[in-house]
Amino acid sequence: MKNKIKKLPGSKLEVEITLSDEEFKVFYEPVLDTALAEVELKGFRKGSAPREMAIQAVNQDKVFNSAVTKAAGKNIEELSQENEWTIIDQPQVEVTDAKDGVTYKVTLSLFPKINIGDYTKIAKDVFSKEEVVAITKEEEDQTIDWLLNSRAKTINVDRGAKLGDLVDIDFNITVDGKDLENAKVTGDRFILGDSKFIQGFDEEIIGKKTKETFEFSLTAPKDFWQKEIQGKKLDFTLTVNEVFEREVPELTDEFAANLSTSFKNIEDMRKSIREGIQMEKTQRVNDKKKINFIEEVSKQMEVDLPEVLVNRMLISLTQQYIQSNPSSNLDHKEAEKQLRAQAEKNVRGHLVLYAIAKQENIKPTQEEIEAEAKGVGLDPEKDYGYLYDKLQNEKVFQFIESLVK
């Protein structure tokens, strides 16, 4: 076997392999024998026809291609072991010459060699910075307001809707006499004054009663998220299905005690709220530090970013975007174009964490994986990859943070 190896961008290799007639026969003959055993000719039992006659009945191209596939699999396996390659995608095989043996090219996507350099200084610079987490009275009051409103009682009323009422509506939007795509909404419920839709929308509903249908027009903002209707007149047909008056409870010791058995009064509740906000803000600060660390190490990391990993990440991001923005007018190609930079950034981040884990021999144990699976309700076998990566990344950051203590 002769081979030539050519490096390609995107962590790929092109391997040209040439096999002599004798070398190729090792793969071709067994495939041919298997095919001949399935031949059925008139006057002969299955697989018992004379070899020369049976060969005429065999699909020669299929036999040849199958033999090449087997040869490529074996040859690439040997070269991978010899060169310590980690193949991360299905090899692409192309025959370039079938005279006097066979010559074919195999395109391989490889897991890259990664050089992250010295990341300890970056770790100390990022994680040694102390950030004071302050909690404002406004944040505390906003949480209490949310708690009070979330426990408001609703009463169906037969009167015109007022700001602060809960309304249930159906509506449809047309532009220039044509229905707007995905703009027919049924059973939409919101607190009047809080919809944050187009300016003036809530005001049109004020004073309208249950079962009342009416029409009105509004102009979409010039920066509206749907580009095709930016600055255009939108014609609405709206029906009020129900109007509910909301009775928001008063903030009392009794209200606090009913929220939790650990609360005796309002001050107990406020203390718990402050602790919760403190914990949430601290977590956000820590998450921001982790992101900053990955970004800084990524800048100095030397790696040929695998195209196949970027494409997989891009598909995932695009699907998430389309699902989260069903009304977006972006098609898949345009979405992919806008998300490619983020996909590359995400892959680089994953490679940073992988490289540190490998360099420091950081691995979760089977016991830790099973405990995590039990804690989050996942299958330790089916979800092994996700659980392993999650725990390994957590251990990597625990190790990194230990460097600054």
Describe the structure.
By secondary structure, the protein is an alpha+beta fold. The chain has three domains: 2-109, Trigger factor ribosome-binding domain (Alpha-Beta Plaits), CATH 3.30.70.1050; 152-247, Chitinase A, domain 3, CATH 3.10.50.40; 278-402, Orthogonal Bundle (Trigger factor, domain 2), CATH 1.10.3120. The chain contains twelve helices and nine strands. The strands form two sheets. Strands 5, 6, 7, 8 and 9 form a five-stranded antiparallel β-sheet that branches. A four-stranded antiparallel β-sheet has the order 1-2-4-3. Strand 3 (92-97) and strand 4 (102-109) form a beta hairpin. Helix 9 packs across helix 10 (332-359). The radius of gyration is 33 Å and the shape is extended. The two termini are 56 Å apart. The mean pLDDT is 92. Involved in protein export. Acts as a chaperone by maintaining the newly synthesized protein in an open conformation. Functions as a peptidyl-prolyl cis-trans isomerase. Keywords: Cell cycle, Cell division, Chaperone, Cytoplasm, Isomerase, Rotamase. Its EC number is 5.2.1.8. Belongs to the FKBP-type PPIase family. Tig subfamily.
What is the tally of helical segments? 12
The CATH class label of the largest domain is: Mainly Alpha
CATH architecture of the largest domain: Orthogonal Bundle
Q: What is the strand content? A: 15-25%
What is the 3D shape?
Answer: extended
- Average per-residue pLDDT, rounded, comes to 92
Unreliable stretches: none
Q: Give the number of domains.
A: 3
Q: Give the full name of the CATH homologous superfamily of the largest domain.
A: Trigger factor, C-terminal domain
SSE string, helices as H and strands as E? EEHHHEEHHEEEHEEHHHHHH
Distance between the termini: 56 Å
- Tell me the CATH topology of the largest domain: Trigger factor, domain 2
Tally of strands: 9
Global Rg: 33 Å
Please summarize the sheet with the most strands: 5 strands, antiparallel
Percent helix range: 40-55%
EC number: 5.2.1.8
InterPro entries: PPIase_dom_sf, PPIase_FKBP_dom, Trig_fac, Trigger_fac_C, Trigger_fac_C_sf, Trigger_fac_ribosome-bd_bac, Trigger_fac_ribosome-bd_sf, Trigger_fact/SurA_dom_sf
Enzyme class: isomerase
Keywords: Cell cycle, Cell division, Chaperone, Cytoplasm, Isomerase, Rotamase
